[in-house]
Amino acid sequence: MNNLKWQSAELEWVEQVRHLLLELARASLADIPKLPDNLAQKALPPIEQGQAILDAASQNGIAESKWEQYPELEFVTQVRQLLLGLTKISLSERPRLPDNLSLRSLDLAEKAQEIAEALEEAMNAPAIASVPDAVPSN
Questions:
Q1: Which one of 14, 47, 122, 125 is separated from 88 by 20 to 30 angstroms, measured CA to CA?
Q2: CB 124 within 8 A of CB 30
C-alpha cells in the first residue's frame, strides 16, 4: 500500500467488489454463460463508491495521471471500467458477454484479495510508540 490511509470502509468495498467479480466469473463460466440477473443494480453501488474513492484520492493531492503508481487506485479504476461496461451491456436489448469476462473477473478478484490482505495487515499492525529522548538525571 502506498500510504493511501484506507480504512474499514475501503476494505469493505474491496470485499464487496471481490464477491461481485467472483459472481461474474462463475456466471461467465456456467454451462450457459450469461450476465448475472440485476447486474446493473448490483454494480451501481460499487461503481459509485469506487468513484468516491478516486475523488478522495484527488482531493488528497493524488493527480489522476499518478493513479497508476498506486496499485489500489489502478484497481479501483479497472473495476469501475469493467462494471460500467458490463452495466451498459446488461441494459442493452441483446446483452452479450465479452469474450474474456471470466479471465478479467478472476484477475481483478485476485487483486482484490491481495489488496484486502494488505489492508487488513496495515490496519492490524501495532502503532509504533514513540520513545522520549533519554534525559540525563543529575
A1: 14
A2: no
Contact 112, 46 (CB under 8 A): no
Alpha-carbon span 51 to 112, nearest angstrom: 16
For residue 125, give the C-alpha cell.
499492525
Q: What percent of the chain has pLDDT over 70?
A: 87
Q: Could you read off the pLDDT of 77-127 as tens digits, one per residue?
A: 999 999 999 999 999 888 888 888 999 999 999 999 999 998 888 777 665
Q: Can you give the chain as a three-state secondary structure string?
A: CCCCCCCHHHHHHHHHHHHHHHHHHHHHHCCCCCCCCCHHHHHHHHHHHHHHHHHHHHHCCCCHHHHHHCHHHHHHHHHHHHHHHHHHHHCCCCCCCCCCHHHHHHHHHHHHHHHHHHHHHHHHCCCCCCCCCCCCCC
Round to whole Å and give the CA distance between 96 and 112.
25
Distance CA(54)–CA(56), nearest Å, equals: 5
Is 0.85 topped by the overall pTM?
Answer: no
